[in-house]
Amino acid sequence: MPGYANCRFSRADVTDGLPFPDETFDAICLADVLEHLEEPVDVLRELRRVTKPGGSIVVSTPLRTGIFKTGAAMLNKLTRGRTYERYYAGKDAHLDEHGHAVMEVPEGHDHISEMTLPELRAAAAAARLQVAEVEPMSVMSGSRWFDEHPFMLSGVMFVEALHGVLRRPSWAHSAVLRLTR
Hints:
Blueprint: E1 25-31, H1 40-50, E2 51-62, H2 67-78, H3 82-89, E3 94-95, E4 101-102, H4 117-126, E5 130-137, H5 150-166, E6 174-180
Parallel strand pairs: 1-2
Antiparallel strand pairs: 2-6, 3-4, 5-6
């Protein structure tokens, strides 16, 4: 792969165990994966196994709760499902008979294991990992729905700016955690 001469790429299923010896890596990045797994704690344990003592595992994942998801759920209820219908159409997804988004993924599952920030901390502790840092992340998701609702987009941008200043986890759409062994 051009520009990556110092890298070697391998494909493995983290849920089946990684093909690396114990304590192989100084750092691991797991970006937007945990929420797709049936047993996220088992995966964190496997990542701990292949991380060197003192090494870092950086995990990013959407949070199940937050101001935008809570507000969107309330608005969706008030509009009898139209909010989610329009929003997810803008992400090329559809809704099941219960009004939940169905995301088509080439492998694995859609979002089946989203957690709250305290649940993420508990999952890390269950995998015998320490939470060294937490960075709450903003909501911007790129749905074309916002193209049709510039007022809503401006409101989101305002709350995003406040989030940037106040760093409120309850406002976060997702979190990045640096876990250490």
